[in-house]
Amino acid sequence: MTDESQLQITRNRDSSLSLSKPRSSLIARGCREAATLAAASILDPLLETRRLAEAGDANAQFELGEAYHKGQGVPQDFAEAISWYRKAAEQYHLCAMENLGEMFENGQGVRADRAETFRWYCRAADVAYSDLSSKPAQWDPDVTIGVFHKAAEYGYALAQWIVGALLAVGVFHRPPDYVQAYMWINLAASASTGDDQREYLSERDAVAAKMTPQKVAEAQRLAREWKPKNASSETSQVASGRDPTSPKSPSAATSPPARSGGR
Q1: Is residue 168 in a domain?
Q2: pTM of this structure
Q3: pLDDT digits (tens, 9 = 90+) for 237-262
Q4: Among 59, 90, 160, 188, which is least packed by CB within 10 angstroms?
């Protein structure tokens, strides 16, 4: 054959076809390289994920962090998990922020730290709220409702309001839970000031209009008894949950801006 792009073929003594020596060398080298890549993939099943993560891909950084967190495909290593989660979180990866909060909450690879837990849950809630506001069609309730609830439990007013609003309309095909909705919105109002507080109180009263006096009293009791998760005066600094319209209500405590929504 004269076309140099095709394999050069010669006949050997026993008339069987064989590849010419230069072509045989190229094919052999290609086979060796393929075998090397295959062996590397076996030794490191996350090879491609690692390559993308090191190149700055936030999804890959989260996946690599999760692999180290759970010990999937690599030995479990909480320090590595935190490192990769943090890289993804700094690029506003919602699940990475949530998982960082969980690791600081549970003391996995780090000393348990309520302040860091609160900070990452709040940042995750801000990102989720921003996504909900700007891209409602892409909202994933399975992910974001959990994020809001974790931040709400730590006393973040924005998250408390969202959880209450969702409970007031019903989530996951469940009927509305007005008692819980009232409680969370009241908590949000007690931790807020100004226009945010007035709006929360208006929404709380709209929920109350659908409740019996007995149910309202129950919701108010739950709000009074509520305490932020792992509460300490030096971390969340949220209000006690008393009705903010009550003359005995303490002044609104410091908390992140209720409607920040920003990143």
Answers
A1: yes
A2: 0.69
A3: 344 444 454 433 333 333 333 343 33
A4: 90
